[in-house]
Amino acid sequence: MRIFAYYLRCCTVAAGCCLTLLFACEEPVELNIDIPKSRLVINSNFYPNELVVLRISSTRPIGGVSHANIDNAEVSLFEGTELAESLEYLPDPETAGAGSYRTKVFRPKVGQQYTIHVAAEGYDPVTAVSSIPDPIAITSIAINGLTKMTVDDLTTYDYSLLIDYADPVEETNYYDLRIYQEVIGYKMSAKGDTVRQSAYLKSVGTPTRAAGQGATVSVLLRDKCQMNAIEVHLQSQLDASRELPGEIVAELRTVSPEYYFYKRSLLGYEGTSLPLNEPVILFNNVDQGLGVFAGYNSVQQKLLLLPE
Predict the structure, then answer these.
(1) Is 145 left (phi over 0), alpha (psi -120 to 50) or beta?
(2) Are 184 and 163 in contact (CB under 8 A)?
(3) Domains of the chain and CATH, by start
(4) Cα–chain center distance at 211
(5) Which of 97, 107, 213, 221 is most buried, taking the most CB atoms under 10 A from its CB?
(6) Span of the secretion signal (predicted)?
(7) Which residues partner with 69 through β-bridges?
(8) pLDDT tens across 181-237, in order?
């Protein structure tokens, strides 16, 4: 990202200089500015015993935002040194030009090293390497200090969630703790009875940050830096006219270093407005390209928000 910011500023200055020179002299002036070549951008988070899905795009010629979906690449996935499968491009029927490459049969396993190789006409070929770590169990989950406040039809449940997990002390592990609220939809019948409908997951927020549409509370952890359980202050907001609270779902992802450092770099990117702010460098494990190719594992544990 620092590279992108640098190019943006260079081009702004160059344009200003060019205008000044055009007004000051009649001779044409050559500006020796290197225009960086477009690069492939890949994105894939893969999980054990699931098909591998990879999205490929490219940067603009001036080196910035990825904008072009690549649908003609040759994509090969290796397990160790053996070819596991060549990925096939599948267009998205709902979004034009936003398809993905997928394995048809092959599903990755824990503890194996995987290498992705991508080649497309007009771009340098790229490679990336990652693996899937062992899952780590959640040992306990509890809710403390639950309060409830209703304003009009909006009910806010404020609480602390305490989660403990079996972090191995003899090795470095990386985690992404994600938390969701299960919600049970309902409606009132003509007789005034409550008719429950299907359950679905809803994002939760914190006292300082309301839950956004599609947003997820994500806590990145490196090992367990304390002996006691991790405590997270949360808020679940429900529409009391049509939603009932179900279970709190805690998902503990044990993630590869590539996953962890990429997600952590995104935390610095959020809210950054170039060129006024300092440029942010996004972690990248794609050789000759940009993006992330990262494995992870996952376990879940649930707890009722309101005890029966």
Answers:
(1) left
(2) no
(3) 2-134+258-296 (no CATH), 138-256+299-304 (2.60.40)
(4) 16
(5) 221
(6) 1-26
(7) 57
(8) 999 999 988 888 889 999 999 999 888 877 665 577 889 999 887 678 899 999 999
